[in-house]
Write a structure and sequence with these properties.
Low-confidence stretches: 10-26, 503-511, 600-639
Largest sheet: 6 strands, mixed
Helix content: 40-55%
Number of helices: 19
Distance between the termini: 171 Å
Oligomer: single chain
Shape: elongated
Mean pLDDT: 77
Radius of gyration: 50 Å
Structural class: alpha/beta
Strand content: 5-15%
Amino acid sequence: KMGTNPTGMVISLLLLALTVAQVDGAPTNYACMDCMKEVENGIATTTPKQMKAMFIYVDRTCMNPKAAAALSLLGRSMSSCDDPIEAVPECFVAANWDQGWTCEITSKIFKNLGLDVQAWTRANFTADSKELYPALTSSYTRCVYEIVAGNVDICVSDFWETTQRRKLVAYTTAFDQDTVRLVTMPKGGAAAAEPQPFSLKDINANNMVSWMKPFDGGVWLCTIAYIVFGAILCWAIEGSAGNTDYLIDDKMSKMSLLQSVWGGTLDLWLGGPSILTAVTWPGRFCLLGYTLFIFITVSMYTANLVNFMVSAEVTPKLVNSLQEVMDTNQKLCILDAASAAIMGAFSIKEENVVRMDEQGSMTEMMFNGGCAAALLGKDDYRVYISGSKAIFTVCTDEGDEKHWATCADPEVKPEVFNLECTCSDLFKDISECRDECPYAKRYCSVQRVTDPNFAFEFTWALPINSYFNQHVSAWLSNFKTTGQVVELRNQYMIKPTPDVCSSSAGEVSPLKLKDMIGVTIIGTGIMFLGAFIAVANKISSLLCKRGAAASSDERDPMSAIPEEGAKIDPSSMSTEQYLAATTAKAKVLEAMIAALPSGSSGGSFGDRNIGASGDAGFEKDGGADASKPKPEPNGDKTDDDFLSGVSSWWQSAVVLPVSNIKVA
């Protein structure tokens, strides 16, 4: 209208710039503060812009603590916020939806933009969305249809951005990414993963060698070879230097070599050199290398032993890949919202699919055998499986075919599953109070499937009315780049949901009796072998003594020597035996006499007294009657007198009787 007038052209450009800079009151910087106002006649007012937000309750993702407290007083759970009859007013206050890693972000965005937000829940689903979305398998997808119908401006929760949904409405910028995981149950169901009592069936070949599993065959052979090599080398060095620990009878021999190898083997089990020693520097260096090998070997064995024998057992999976599900014509549970994208990407047939509405109901369906496997996001796996922190509902009515989060019959109430329940007695384990917490750690038997041919990801973003998209997306990008999104995920999802099912969480599976069968039997067998050898040696020694005694009775005159204190009976033995007996007894007497101290005052042998004079009661020099005893004189005598007395006794007690024996 200004024509070619330069002044008019300048004014037109200025007006155009102002128009572009503020359309419906929207500034060029969409991540603005208190900037979304109602517009009248193209001019922004001071009245906050109204927005209708539907909050989809998911524990740790989008929560309303004030509504939860109010419902708790009534004996209800947060699922009542989705029930038009049981919901409380606190459920419909937008400012109350300020916890959870997604809702805390949106709560800050709404405040920053200065929006007047009206809160909706699933209790506000309309007939319009039902008409547009008759399947009603996913409350997430139904919320998208509420935006299509113009009833809602934004859906708030952990929404996957799918191609089908994006065809219907706009999405904000993605603020995180979710990885889909394939999970399954163990063969035989949940009971197969429960600890089983010890039985005789556990004594099998696998358990017998379980203690050897930390090393493979090659490592064991290397260890044995090194022990032998080290022992031989130390034997050669130290034995030649005269180290008695490597010698037998002060000599290097085959037996001393075996003794060295034996000592080296014991050193391995003792964890260090305690048998082998060194007295030379070459020997010390040899022992140093040997010690280093033992230290590293024992350390590695101990570390691996923990993984093999202390960590939880891995039960065989029901399926091992997505392709196996289809090849064996089994069922796969998929969230309806993700079914089209995943089925199209992996050519999954409709007859192999069980569509579910929520993650909790889907997990319970798989747990009860309704499907062989399921697809869960990374947060879903953490909350429902490994962390066991979810609270959700499942329709357990036998007449309900789908067993979704809500029952087909509105008169039937679904059952609440509380996975994070704790015992009232804090000193009790969950397994000891199942009457209080029937669902705690319910899905710990669920196993992840590592399938190299399956990989799928979704982005997390919010379905939104295009009018609000640029402002909300700008703030989402701001929170993402400043690290606030990651921080909130750690705060609400990662830290509060540690792995409570596996050994990596600190709850190690105790060492079982069957794990100790092999080493117990082998160790006990070795000890009994030693005891058997000792007993065999004892028996052999006794048999040898008896055999020697029997043979000496036939050919050795000394075998007739009586026990100490017994009298010699010449009539019961031959001349040779009698001479042997008396000679042996005489030698005993001589030994006893030699043991007496010098200047002895006398003593007694057998039944004869030897006085101080040493004449044993007989005449010293024979006399008229050599056999007639005489009284012992008093007074000190010399050793010669004593020995003369013993000699007289020897003549009367031994020589004279022997001379009277008739030789046949």
